[in-house]
Records
---
Amino acid sequence: MSDEFTYAESAAAFILRQTPLRPRIALVLGSGLGGFADELTESVKIPYAEIPGFPSSTAVGHAGRLVIGNAGDLPLAAMQGRVHLYEGYSPTQVTFPMRVFGRMGIKAAILTNAAGGINREYGQGALVVMTDHINLQGQNPLAGPNDDRFGPRFPDMTHAYCDKYREITLHAARRLGKPVHQGVYAALLGPNYETPAEIRYLRAIGADLVGMSTVPEVIAARHMGIKVLAISCVTNMAAGILDQPINHEEVLETTARVRGDFVALLRAVLPEIANDVA
Ligand code: HPA
């Protein structure tokens, strides 16, 4: 058995030596959404390359560092950028940061991503709270021998996306006057955007959103009993929904545009999630 657990413990100890803060909430900030972590105070910023065992990200718009700092008086661990399976990383590498969070004592993870909108009720720039996922990546971070120190062989995924956190988020969004949607996220390997036929297929099987991330991390988080909130930013309508090509610049432009709403929403939900994991 590979000793992912021991590596995760060493990386967790390495990180906790750099700060007196002991966060119980982690944020994984996707494409273009990493800026929130720059606003944390009393922070340490650790490039992924310096953390033993951490994979470094190659995607444009992903800074690749871990920020531990305070939002108000709430300590957080925030990943600015993540790595993806399409970059050639193994599922174990992709989920290693989540494993480290588990060993650091993180109890709740908030994951964000850029996604294509399949549900026609969404518009470009919509924020969508994930209710569930469909794993079509053909890979699973739990494949291989199970390490019972992380969690059980056959973890339940019925409530992978915490109902209470979704409610908290929907209420917060209404209070802010920027209602959010809910939907099912289908994860594909990528890196190409989907074909229109693939999007028709995804719609038929019940997907509202499509993306290339998040699902491996959620599976690893749930394996360890970490509660999950996941929010997608619809950066573009999925292939064939509108008759126009999709490009990465558009994805980054949209995240830049909704950044303010997104940060406001995060700030509103964080204290309530902190109460839950106190
Ligand atoms: N498809 C897959 N992943 C994405 C998309 C998309 O249309 N937009 C942003 N990430």
---
Amino acid sequence: MTARKRVAVLISGRGSNMTALIEAAKASDYPAEIIGVLSNKPDAAGLQTAAAEGIATAIRSHRDYASREAFDAALHAVLTGWNAEFVCLAGFMRILTPEFTGNWLGRMINIHPSLLPEFRGLHTHDRALKAGAAEHGCTVHFVTPGLDEGPTLTQSRIPVLPGDTAESLQARVLVEEHRLYPLALAELASGRARLVGDEVIHTPR
Ligand code: GRF
């Protein structure tokens, strides 16, 4: 097998998607290894999970930087210091500059809890319910400068059930997120999914 790709994960909170990636990468045939977890929040619970797994962690608080550009430069320095080849955003709650997203174009993905392009941004479950959506789900997409706008790598859809609340929907979508994100990273790290221009090219196994 070719060398496993070095992947850093950016988080801001609990890090359950990060944990799903770490667990998946324990398989010897998984094409990526999680080599570092970076948070903009010093108290992000996911940092402790990562450290307990023996993974390098770093904190760069956006509050310590005068501009988005300076903050993103600090993130970039950590990632390059780790020799990261790919970046997974996993509940990372900062908007990134075009320069940063440009540096990682085609090498950085995000998971979003909706069927993009529907419901970009926050409160997706509540908004899906209020819109009367019959289906909801999650999307893994390449990161481009526009928030939740990059080309879709893969999606998972679930039905909205009678009686669903934002909480019940969120819980079922999260189960799908934890299944989907490791699959998507495997596609990316193995080269079976690539960003070419604005399109995602999938190469069958
Ligand atoms: C997930 O729902 C993810 O899709 C969204 O933020 C949430 C992060 O949860 N971007 P966790 O930190 O991975 O548990």
